[in-house]
Write a structure and sequence with these properties.
- The structure is a single chain.
- By secondary structure, the protein is mainly alpha-helical.
- The protein has one domain: EF-hand (Recoverin, domain 1, Orthogonal Bundle), CATH 1.10.238.10.
- Helix content is 53%, strand content 4%.
- It is built from seven helices and two strands, in the order H-H-H-E-H-H-H-E-H.
- A two-stranded antiparallel sheet has the order 1-2.
- Helix 3 crosses helix 7.
- The longest helix has 11 residues.
Length: 110
């Protein structure tokens, strides 16, 4: 599991994924809390950002958000378009259409 380096535990990640397995049920605050990411250090959250930033662009773009759950477990569902847009809106504080590392950290710690 890629997120083991961030200190997340498999049972917590599994519980977070179970909580949003159905389309339309993903809520980022609940997910971050349940999987344990919201309680991690700034350095660990930064590591998580770079795991989600699949293309290493320095930003998490819409397509990476759509596949967000799959970065935690292969075979997890893709987010719906509505969930993806809500997630992007929640994290994109400067309105540039993508989430930077600081924006991601702020969103995780909300």
């Amino acid at each position: 599991m890629a997120f083991a380096s961030v200190g997340l535990k498999d049972p917590d990640v599994a519980k977070a994924l179970e909580g949003c397995k159905d389309a339309g049920t993903f809520k980022h605050k609940a997910f971050f809390h349940t999987c344990g990411l919201s309680s991690k250090s700034a350095e660990e959250v930064k590591k998580a950002f770079f795991i989600v930033d699949q293309d290493n662009s320095g930003f998490i773009e819409e397509e990476e958000l759509k596949l967000f759950l799959q970065t935690f477990k292969a075979g997890a569902r893709a987010l719906t378009d509505a969930e993806t847009m809500e997630f992007l809106k929640a994290g994109d504080s400067d309105g540039d259409g993508k989430i930077g590392c600081d924006e991601f950290a702020d969103m995780v710690k909300q």
